[in-house]
Amino acid sequence: MLIIVVGVNHRTAPVEVRERLSFPEHSLGNFLDRLNNYPAIEGCVIISTCNRTEIYAATRKLDEGLNAIWDFLSQKSGVDISEIKNYSYTHTLYDTIRHLFRVAAGLDSMILGETQILGQVRQAYQMACQHGSTNRVLNTLFQQAITVGKRVRSETGIDQNAVSISYAAVELAKQKFKDLSGRSVLVIGAGKMSELTARHLVANGVSGVIVSNRSYQRALKLAVQFNGRAVKFDQLYHYLAEADIVISCTAASHYVVRLKDVAGVIAARQGRPIMMIDIAVPRDIDPAAGKLPGVTLYDIDDLQQVVDQNLAQRKKAAVVAESIIEEELEQFMQWLSMQFVVPTIAALKQRGEEIKKKELHRALNRLGDISEHDRKVVSSLANSIVNQLLHVPVTQLKAYALTPEGHLYMKVLQNLFQLSIPGEEPKSFENAPGQGNVATGL
C-alpha cells in the first residue's frame, strides 16, 4: 500500500487558487465520503487551512490514486486538472511521510515554527476518523505526525520566540512587567496591526483595553471585541495616566503623542512605569518621550530587531528539528516496511502449508498402515523441510523491506511462488517462463 499526498500551499499557488481548492469545515465530512468512494482510494485525510490544502491518501496503485485525487479536486473546485497540476505538489511514500512530519512540526509554514498548524493537523485527522475515512496505515501515520510535532516543539523550543511585529510587542511587554495579568492597555488607532497587538496582549493576561481613534465608530467597534472602552481621540491624553501599556499605530503624518503630553501625566502616575510601543511609520510618539523617568519606548525598528533575533533562533531550532524528523522518519519507515511485506510472508507460509499438507497426505497413504509414532516422524520431517526452506526467503525479505528496493524483492517473491495477496488483483502466470508441475514442490 502506498501513501500519497497532493497539495497546494502559499508557495505554490496564489490565494485565488487556494481559496477555490479549500474545504469549508462544515462540509468537510461530505467531501471525505466522496473521495473515499473512488475505487483507488483506501483511506484519506484532508487538511485545509488558509495557507494550504493537502489530501493524504492510501492507495495500492500510484497512478490511479493520484488521478482520483486530481479528478476529485477538479470536480469540487471547477478548476481544470491541468491547472491543478501546475499549482500543486505531489509526494509519494517516503517523501509523503517526511512532508507531513515537517508540516506538523511547523517547518513548512509561512511563519517558521508556528504552533497553530499542529492543532489543524490533529483536527483534520479527528474529522477523518469520525467519518471512517482512514485506515490502519493513515491512523498510524497521523498519530505519529502529531507526536513528532509535539516532540519538535518540546525539544527545540522552535515556537517560543515571537516572529511577528505584533507578538514581538507582547514579548517586550512581558519582559518589562513579567506578568501581564491585570495590566491595562491604551490602543491608539483601530487598524489591523493595533487589533492584532491588542488581541495578543489580552490573550496573555491584559484585562483593561481602552481604544482611541479619529473615527469614534471604528474605536467603538474594536473596543467591543475586547469588552473594552472607546474614547474620543481628543481625550486620549486623559487616559495615559491609567494605562500600563500604550500601543500606537495610526496613519498620521505627525506625532500623535507629544513630549509635553507624556510629561504631563508622569506626576499623575505616581511612579508607576509606563511602556509605549510605537508601531507606526511615520512615528506616532515623540522619541524624546522615551527619556522621561518611568517611560520605556520602543519603535518599529526595535520590534523588528526582536523579530530578526527570534527568527535566527527559530532557524537554529529548525536544524535540530530536521534531525528529529529524520530519526522519526526512519523508525516509521521500518514499521511501514514490515506492514508491506507481512501479507506476502503470510501468503508464502500459507503456500508452503498447502503443499506440505497435500504431499504429506499422499505420502501417508502410500505408506499404508504405519504406527502413530511413524506418522509423527513423517509429519515432523515435512514440517521441518518446509520451515527450513522458507526461513531464508522470509528472513531476507524482512531485511530487504528496510531498503528502497524492498517492494521489488516482494514482487519478485510473489511472482516466483505465484502468491495471491488479499486485496490485490490475482496475477496470470500462463505465459511465465518455465511453467510446469508445481504441485510437488515450492
UniProtKB/TrEMBL annotation:
InterPro entries given in the database record: 4pyrrol_synth_GluRdtase (IPR000343), 4pyrrol_synth_GluRdtase_dimer (IPR015896), 4pyrrol_synth_GluRdtase_N (IPR015895), GluRdtase_CS (IPR018214), GluRdtase_dimer_dom_sf (IPR036453), GluRdtase_N_sf (IPR036343), NAD(P)-bd_dom_sf (IPR036291), Shikm_DH/Glu-tRNA_Rdtase (IPR006151)
Residues annotated to bind NADP(+): G189, A190, G191, K192, M193, S194
Pfam families per record: GlutR_dimer, GlutR_N, Shikimate_DH
Biological processes annotated in GO: protoporphyrinogen IX biosynthetic process from glutamate
Pathway the protein takes part in: Porphyrin-containing compound metabolism; protoporphyrin-IX biosynthesis; 5-aminolevulinate from L-glutamyl-tRNA(Glu): step 1/2
Domain Tetrapyrrole biosynthesis glutamyl-tRNA reductase dimerisation: 321-419
The reaction(s) this protein catalyses: (S)-4-amino-5-oxopentanoate + tRNA(Glu) + NADP(+) = L-glutamyl-tRNA(Glu) + NADPH + H(+)
Active-site residues, Swiss-Prot/TrEMBL: C50 (nucleophile)
Keyword NADP: yes
Binding positions for substrate per the UniProt entry: T49, C50, N51, R52, S109, E114, T115, Q116, Q120
Positions of the record's site feature: Important for activity: H99
Occurrences of domain Glutamyl-tRNA reductase N-terminal (ranges): 6-156
Quinate/shikimate 5-dehydrogenase/glutamyl-tRNA reductase domain location: 171-306
GO MF assignments: glutamyl-tRNA reductase activity; NADP binding
Family assignment from sequence similarity: Belongs to the glutamyl-tRNA reductase family.
Comment on protein domains: Possesses an unusual extended V-shaped dimeric structure with each monomer consisting of three distinct domains arranged along a curved 'spinal' alpha-helix. The N-terminal catalytic domain specifically recognizes the glutamate moiety of the substrate. The second domain is the NADPH-binding domain, and the third C-terminal domain is responsible for dimerization.
Name of this chain's protein: Glutamyl-tRNA reductase
Organism: Desulfofundulus thermobenzoicus
